[in-house]
Amino acid sequence: MKRYPSDLTDEEWEIIKAILDHEDPYTTGRPAEVDHREVLNAIFYINATGCQWRYLPKDFPLYTTVSDYYHKWIRNGIWQKINTALRQQLRKKVGRNENPSAGIIDSQSVKGTPESSIESGVDGGKLVKGRKRHIVTDTIGCLLIVVVHAANIPDGKGAKKILEKLFDILDTLELIWADGAYAGELVAWVYEMFGCVLEIVKKKKAKGFHVLPRRWVVERTLAWLTRYRRLSKDYERNPSSSEAMVYSASIRLMLKRLIKPVEQVEMAA
Fold first, then answer.
1. Using one digit for the tens of pLDDT, what is the confidence trace for 49-61?
2. Which of 172, 173, 190, 263 can bridge 99 by disulfide, Cβ–Cβ 3.0-4.6 Å?
3. What's this model's pTM, rounded to 2 decimal places?
């Protein structure tokens, strides 16, 4: 029986269990005594509510055990692998190729905390002291990759960090849309390095609010992610943990979309 809204349903667990068994199999030693489903439920609870590890409700496994699994999966790249597998499944469900040919890049500066003082800085444009989440999504809003770095690193420089990592794991992208913060020499660099076109979507000159083509998709994904309270600020000591929390929220979002009828998934996209 579900205890919390963040808990996995049976259908969601079957999807993620197959991926987890493939990506993190037990090949040596004793079988795990802790239920992986309960470990994931605990992590999703922390991500959704923003609570501290020590305040994890007692009906979950010990917070130290949950934390050990969480950081083990960071070291092994499991969060990113689960995110990739779910994104491929979701794209297939709506009739797309598993891997996209186009993406959208954007960043989000968030306030830091005393815990996140490592690799922290001030975004002079947005007057935010903390860290910057750099993400790339596909055209239906699924997260492809996230890189977290100090907020004082300009978007153009931060983009090089994330795109180098992105093209190491995904070589199908031919076009990436971006806003004016990525204009300049980065456009030529992206094409020379990866053979990919970086297209700048400019703001309209007309007064008032306007939804900008393509850019709204990544902005919507950032809005979805920040509904998870652990992402309201950056509470993590290391940027790698910050990235894992973003992947955790992305995984939860895609699981919800995967169990919906395909018509509802297409509407959400």
1. 999 999 999 999 9
2. 172
3. 0.92
